């Protein structure tokens, strides 16, 4: 286990296959170069957006506005709908990402009718630093070419479309591109500029302040867990817990470390109970700047 709930298998590996390339050119120049038309794959449209860099400024921790708007905008500017896509590659920067994307696109995640990964994502192909999604573009190109060849053999002239979702950070960066075996039927070209704003603009309705390094002040405050993780040691033991939550009295969001062993064990499911939404207590560490959290008042780690 690295950080709960992600074991080593679900974490990114930097040094995997680093080499990939693609050639992007115009129809005129492709003809001038003598590239056979059965090799051509058309980029129809794309979009990209990122969440706020400070994770504690996000609206919630169970969805991604950047992911959803990037997917919707890329499909829209490409003149496509989800049902028009034949192949997906939804990169799993963490396992939650393709689940969230599939949920937003209304694709069954456990038994999808169409492939939602071509290379296997993080588990089978590595992760951060290896430029995964350029590999996805090259693999999508190969598979779309193959589908076109098979269709031509059966006198089927329809277009085949693919969608690639690239992402990185902590659900931070999202980029989507749609590729096709045919140019757009409406004659439109790839759009000028990004249809999305660069950064998510919305903030939580009740988000006015965060309890930061100044701590929660004196006293003990009741708080609700919004999200959490636990960092494990080299000996695979829970080491330090991290909590993001809300103070019940003021609605302020707080960030805290876990203040006692019992709470720490509760976070890693030794009790079998999910703790998101559960109430506990927050206080400022004595002679320190950290907030501490525990299910019992002012417990000690």
UniProtKB/TrEMBL annotation:
Positions in coiled-coil regions: none
Domain Thiolase-like protein type 1 additional C-terminal: 222-286
GO molecular function, one term: acyltransferase activity
Record Pfam families: TLP1_add_C
Keywords in alphabetical order: Acyltransferase, Transferase
Similarity section: Belongs to the thiolase-like superfamily. Thiolase family.
Protein name: Thiolase-like protein type 1 additional C-terminal domain-containing protein
Species per Swiss-Prot/TrEMBL record: Sclerotinia nivalis
